[in-house]
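Supplementary notes (optional reading)

For those who missed the lab, this is the record we used. Protein: Polyphosphate--nucleotide phosphotransferase. Length: 292 residues.
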Amino acid sequence: MKNEFKGLIVQGDKKFSLKNHKTDYTGGYNKEKAKDALVNSKIELDHLQEKLYASGKHSVLIIFQAMDAAGKDSAIEHVMSGLNPQGCQVYTFKVPTSEEYEHDFLWRHYKALPERGRIGIHNRSHYENVLVCKVHPEYVLSENIPGFNDVKKINKSFWQQRYKSIKNFEEHLTANGTVILKFFLNVSRDEQKQRFLERIDDPTKNWKFSSGDIKERALWDKYMEAYQDAINETSTVESPWHIIPADKKWFARLAISEIIEDKLKSLDLKFPVLGEAEVAKLDETKNILLSE
């Protein structure tokens, strides 16, 4: 991995602080240089995806978490646009349905996991249950968990158990061949303000804006604390968090693409090699076709 992206990884070996990560970091790139580099990275991702699909040994789960207007949707659009749709699936998780509330909080996410050979992208994820639910603990009451019928009972030990459940879930997936890449798009409060104003001023972007976004923005500090806690509690060597400076979308897209590319390369993916019997069958079939 290039040096300019190494500092974006949190592996759980030391406490992480959001204050130490600059949201406008660009790693020495300018906009044009980053765009050119992204084109090359996307070409490489296309080749790697084909090997991933052909080998059928690993699946890849890419998780995007961020505050509103941080650029999750555009990152998915620009980074993943060169991939074969047949080997890629995207899920956007919203408020749980009544059926989903009748199961444990990981149930709907487990259902959406990618098969071996495929790349799954979760736009928001199981981490919403320790992010928005931590800022709004009253949401947890809708889960009807025995013993938790009052917000006052949702204490520190409750969240520690939930972090533990997430770590166990991810450890199980990793042990069974799923590569997990977790991205937090770290946008500044000032940049979010500018993007909200753009959505309001541009009629073609009005649909992206919700009045509820402003209510959540007022809870910015609580969200930052929730993100920092979640990152510290769930970052591991096997499943680290990647903190992406998101004030410059062009750099965020490149960083995400390079990190995914680097991880896929580390898997040493290869096309399957046929045995002697299968090769003989191919030769026989070729002769049949040529004799027609």
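If you only remember one thing from this example: The radius of gyration is 21 Å.
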